[in-house]
Every structure is written in structure tokens, then in C-alpha cells.
Amino acid sequence: MGANGRTPTPGAVAAKAREGGVPPSGGRKAAGSLAWAVALPAVMILGAGVGQWVTWIGVVVMLAAVAAAACLIGGVWHRAGAATTASVAGFLLMLFAGPAVYEAYMTTVGEPASAVVTEVSDRHNRRGADMFCSVRETGGDRATYEVSQQENCFGQAEVGDRVEIRKDPLGLLDPRLPDGPDQENTTEITLAAATGLTLLTAAATFYAGQRRRQAV
Predict the structure, then answer these.
(1) What string of DSSP letters covers 106-143?
(2) What are the phi and psi torsion angles at 32 (to 5°)?
(3) Does the record carry Transmembrane as a key word (predicted)?
(4) Which end of the chain, N or C, is more open, meaning fewer C-beta atoms within 10 Å of its C-beta?
(5) Using an 8 Å Cβ cutoff, are 204 and 93 in contact?
(6) In this predicted structure, what is the pLDDT of residue 142?
(7) Within a 13 Å sphere around the CA of 188, how many CA atoms are in the beta-carbon half?
């Protein structure tokens, strides 16, 4: 019963809920929290994958997703701690998700091709040392590629070495060099880190949605 002695109608209750005066029911809250917990990390991972193709677009998408998470969790749901956790995990996910997506994609669907290493160079720039490898296919059209550390050129191969590269069947990404003897389990570690950060981001988002506070 309302303050004026009348029982509010269902329409009035719904309108008040839309205005933020009445918290959503448990089922609606859980569904909404789960939707955001899935959507935000998914967009971050999508941005990471796009970033392997067009770097600046991927960075914009990932930063937008992190900003959206911070605004939603901290500004709308008023859970500062969860917002900090999701934001930090999201930024770290930017570092691991890109390599994880690339390595998983090339390892699972990449087309193997025999190649020979023709050049290995260590170029220094403002960010530090960057390794670059030039490889030429030994069969087919004998295409030549120059790959960087992003494509797993870390000096594990020397000029003249014969290697089996993995080529993108869609032709969008540069080939990936095989792992060296001292790079065992690096793909698994990268995938595990990306998976853990994804779950942490999702868990922080879901928790915040379930424990959201109403604006005073």
C-alpha cells in the first residue's frame, strides 16, 4: 500500500522500477548480470582478435569495452571494488588475449607449409629490441614473408633452417613460426592466462550485477 493509502497498480510498480526506485527481481537481476558478464569479456576478446589483423581497431574496441565495464560496474551499479577488479583484469586481458587468439587460431586451423629462414634481424627502436624473421616457402609459389615477434620470431630459428610455418587459410594474418626447444608450453600458458583473466572479468561483472546498489 502506498503512502496515500492506495495499493499501487502493476503498471505503477513497473514504471517506478524503470526509474530506479525499485530494484529488479532476482531472476531479472541474475539474467542481466549474466548477460553483461558474458558480453563484456566477449567484446574484449573480439577486439583482441581484430587487433591481430588491424591493430588500432582492436585497441579501440578493447578500450571501449574496458571503459564500458568501469562505467557500468562503478557508475551504474556502484560497486567500486568490482569495477577496479574488472578494469585491471580487462587491461591485462588486452595483453594476453591477442596472442592467445592468434596462437589458438593458427595452431588449430593454420595450414602447414615448408619454408626456409632467409634472414633474422634484431632491430632496436624506442620500445627496445624487436626480432624479425624472413622466411621463404620451399614449395608452391615460393612466397616470402617477414614476420615479427608477434608471429613468434624470437630468434629460435637461424638463417638456413628449414621450418614448418602455419599460414592463415583466409590470408588475413601473417604466418606463424614454430616454437623452439625453449618455448615448450608457451601457447598453453598464454591460453591459460587469457582464460583466467576472462573468467575473472566475468566473475567481477556478475558479482557486481548481483550486488548492485541503487542510486540514492
Answers:
(1) HHHHPEEEEEEEEEEEEEEETTEEEEEEEEEESSTT--
(2) -65, -40
(3) yes
(4) C
(5) no
(6) 85
(7) 3
Q: What is the mean pLDDT of residues 133-139?
A: 91
Please calculate the CA angle 164-168-169 and round it to the nearest 5 degrees: 110
CA distance 103 to 98: 9
Measure the CA angle with vertex 202, ends 107 and 108; round to 5°.
Answer: 10
| pTM given for the model | 0.75
| The one-letter amino acid at 83 | A
With 0-12 CB in 10 A as exposed, 13-18 as middle and 19+ as buried, what is 53?
Answer: middle
Are 152 and 177 in contact, with CB atoms under 8 Å apart? Answer: yes
Residues 1 and 6: their CA atoms lie apart, in Å, by 5
Sorted by where each begins, the domain ranges of the chain are 25-105+189-210, 112-166
Q: Which of 97, 92, 89 is nearest to 201 (CA)?
A: 89
State residue 47's pLDDT score: 92
Residue at 39: amino acid letter: A
| φ/ψ (deg, to 5) at 145 | -130, 145
Place of cell 574496458: 66
Q: Helices in 52-185 by DSSP H: which ranges?
A: 55-70, 80-109
215 phi, psi to nearest 5 deg: -65, 140
Write down the residue that cell numbers 594476453 correspond to: 96
CA distance 47 to 183: 26
